[in-house]
Design goal:
By secondary structure, this protein is an alpha+beta fold. It contains 6 helices and 6 strands.
């Protein structure tokens, strides 16, 4: 075979091999790599499971906090209804003591004095027992009227104190924890000077 023909055959063979390689490369580019596809699916599944886990942990933390609050409230306010009923007993004891005139109380001796002392002791013990269970008395005499803790029964003209000051307590109020168990029934001053505004003083 002549040398020129041999050279041409070699060039044609090389060109054919290059075309075959190019075709194979284009087929590889067009096809999806199964390893990459599986990795992408696993990554997406992992991200979804991680998101669900974080959401579940957040929900569990919220549930734990809410349960703690509910348990604390149950402990603090479990005696609310009972305490409200006991307040009637405290009121009756106070009325019994108030019904005895001061001069008669001072001049008594013997059995009557023992009875009065016993009732006063019972009132003190009842007050201490209520306090042990978170129930405290509200005595707003001389304070500014607070509609959240006091119930105004009447107004009293009194120019000597600022308007809106509690000048008379008809019935003591009580709180349990930070909640009002029973508002205090009060008389409120009207017509006096306006109460000083703390913002003005600053």
């Amino acid at each position: 075979m002549p040398q020129d023909d041999q050279r041409q055959t070699t060039v044609e063979a090389g060109a054919g091999a290059a075309q075959d390689n190019a075709a194979a490369g284009s087929r590889a580019e067009g096809s999806v790599d199964p390893v990459a596809e599986a990795l992408a699916l696993l990554t997406a599944e992992r991200d979804e499971l991680k998101d669900r886990m974080l959401r579940t942990l957040a929900e569990m933390e919220n549930l734990r906090r809410r349960t703690e609050r509910e348990v604390a409230d149950a402990r603090a306010y479990a005696v609310t209804n009972f305490a409200r009923d006991v307040l009637n007993v405290a009121d009756n004891i106070r009325r019994a003591l108030d019904s005895v005139p001061a001069d008669a109380k001072a001049g008594t001796d013997g059995a009557l004095k023992g009875l009065i002392d016993g009732i006063e002791l019972t009132e003190r013990d009842l007050g201490k027992t209520l306090e042990r269970h978170g129930v405290k008395i509200v005595e707003p005499q001389g304070q500014k009227f607070d509609p959240n803790r006091h119930q105004a029964m009447f107004e009293v003209p009194n120019p000597e104190v600022p308007a809106g000051t509690v000048v008379q307590v008809v019935q003591s109020g009580y709180v349990i924890g930070d909640r009002v168990l029973r508002p205090a029934l009060v008389g409120v001053a009207k017509g006096g000077p306006k109460a000083a505004n703390p913002a003005d003083a600053a």
